[in-house]
Amino acid sequence: MLVPRLALLPVLVFIGLLPCLSAAQSGDDPVVYEVESLNAGLARAPAWFERETPQGAMESFLEAAARADWDAAAHMLNLADVAEAAQAEDGPLLARQLYHVLDRKVIIDWADLLDRPDAIDTRQSSDAAMAGQPRKSIRLWLLELDNRAVPIRLNRVQAEGSDPVWVFSRQTVANIPALFDRYGPSRLEQSLPGALRSAAFWGLQWWEVIALPLVVALVIGAGLGTHWLFTRPRDGTRVAAILRAVRGPAVLLAMTLALSQLTRIFVFSGRIDTVLSPLAAIGFVAAVIWSIVNVVDEIMDRLVTFEGDELSEIGEEEERKRRAATKIAALRRLIVVLVTLVGAGIVLREADVLRALGFSLLASAGALTLILAYAARDVLSNIMSSIQISMNQSARIGDRIVYKDYLCSVERINFTYVQLRVWTGRRLVVPVTEFVSECFENWTMKEPFMMREVRLRLAHDVDVDRLRQIYDAVLDDLDDPTERPEARAVYVTHQNVFGTEVLFLVPCEDPNRCWAFACEVREGLLKRIAEAEKDGARIFPEAVPAEAA
Predict the structure, then answer these.
(1) Residue 98 in contact with residue 112, Cβ under 8 Å?
(2) N or C: which end of the chain has fewer CB within 10 A?
């Protein structure tokens, strides 16, 4: 009998757990905010007013606002902080004020307002944080108020003896007066005739249709006036140079300030404000970034000259300037990158640009980051490569280099390309990633002294000692710039049927002149060898018959 009783043990345990499971399923902790009463001071809601789902509640609120039925719209507010006796009077007023705030500053994401009482989003994947989870609060938007972010929320509330309904949270209702003072109609708008405040088209009012072109004209006028003011000093003066450096940022800042102030005077509806507010934020940040870049450039131009020709001279002072110019150029790029990244972050955070322009879905789950990173991969790679060149000093501004058989000097190392000046005066613009991936000769790096080669094919029985005398005479006549006479040398490097190959080394202290100096040495050697042959010496090889060749 013991075995059958043990077999019944799991069944008895399961039966004992049934009450606990039933209590958990029935929801001892329901996904609602429980209250004793909800808006007891208001009259009964109209029959058409529906608050069981978030979507239905918002549609009912907007429908009541369209009918100007603010008594019905007041049922969408949790008036727990309003005295019951005052709810009938204050509720409609608060509902009307909230509607003006929503109409002017909030873009309703209807995809987030599900038509389910529990607000479960069945479209989410199983990996999502809220997958299959009921919600009792939905945030519609964030608005700035007194240097803090104030949320606009819908809460699911259940009064005793009633079904759960979706209404604006009590915290949102408490902030309505302050939000209306900040974002509601201005005094100028309230003083306008009723005809101008009537509906026009695209959800705009007639005063907005008239005021928008006026605001654009005033903003452009502020920019033109600032531009004229900063161009009054004559060219050539130090004041004029400073004003030219800050003219662009000042024009942008003036236009942004004008736009910011005018949007406070003319409080436009959400369809216009969602474009103007991000533009104002972007304008402020862009003006600051622009001014910082210009100021940094002005300071660096005064610290060191960035012209490659002026930095290519040989000497300890020029060597120091080349290192400083390259490091300062790298510092400039780092400052620009950091300021730009910080500015972009401020714009995205403060202006809520992505959501305001309808890109919230694109920005979610890092999709926007991946898209931008893929699109800017070449630019970012070039920027990092340019910083790498500047930090490892493999090619400094002013260095003389040979790149793909071009003898040139480094003029500038920019974000995405390196500017090279060929000895003929032409400019090569090379992408930084391509420049760092190719081998190149740096004639100025470390030790400027270098040896050039002059190779001549001469006769089999040429007198090499006579050639050394001619070689020394040529270098002496050309005022050999090197102080290393021991570097002079003549070598026989090769011999075949065509003759003897002789190598003449040309020592040179200045890599900027070494190519031209080697050409002068070759010319002098040929001239003196020709003169020696006239005296009877046999130096040049005889012409080889075609059959032998």
Answers:
(1) no
(2) N
Q: What are the CA-CA distances from residue 153 to residues 15, 107, 137 (Å)?
A: 42, 13, 7
Q: Which position has the token pair 């003319």? A: 266
* CA–CA separation, 407 and 129 (whole Å): 61
Tokens of 549: 């060749």
CA 487 to chain centre: 54
184 neighbors 175 (Cβ within 8 angstroms) = no
Phi, psi of 219 (to 5 degrees): -65, -45
> Would you call 381 exposed, middle or buried from its count of C-beta atoms within 10 A (0-12, 13-18, 19+)?
middle
Closest CA to 521 of 490, 484, 486, 483: 490
On the CB side of 80, how many CA atoms lie within 13 Å of its CA?
17
Domain ranges in the chain are 33-184, 206-373, 450-534
Task: Give 112 or 18, the one with higher predicted confidence.
Answer: 112
Among residues 201, 478, 421, 212, which one has the least CA distance to residue 306?
421
CA distance 82 to 77: 11
HEC letters along 527-547: HHHHHHHHCCCCCCCCCCCCC
Structure-token pair, residue 540 = 């040049």
Q: Please, are residues 290 and 336 in contact by the beta-carbon 8 Å criterion?
A: no
Q: Annotate 201-237 with DSSP letters as a single string.
A: STT-BHHHHHHHHHHHHHHHHHHHHHHHHHT-SPTTS
Query: How far does CA 522 lie from the centroid of its chain?
Result: 55
Q: Compute the distance between CA of residue 395 and CA of residue 401 in angstroms, rounded to an integer.
A: 8
Task: Tell me the three state secondary structure of residue 77.
Answer: strand
- Dihedral (C-alpha) 450, 456, 458, 462: value to the nearest 10 degrees? -20
> The tokens of 147 are what?
């240097």
- Of 510, 311, 330, 509, the residue nearest 410 (C-alpha): 311
The CA distance from 92 to 73, in Å, is 7
Predicted confidence band of residue 87 (pLDDT cuts 50, 70, 90): very high
Q: How would you class 186 by CB atoms within 10 Å of its CB: exposed for 0-12, middle for 13-18, buried for 19 or more? A: middle
CA dist., res. 156 & res. 34, Å (int): 9
Residue 410: what pLDDT? 85
Assigned CATH for 450-534: 3.30.70.100
What would the pLDDT profile of 189-245 be if each residue is shown by its tens digit? Answer: 777 787 777 767 776 778 778 888 888 899 999 989 888 887 765 555 556 666 777
Does residue 368 have a pLDDT over 70? no
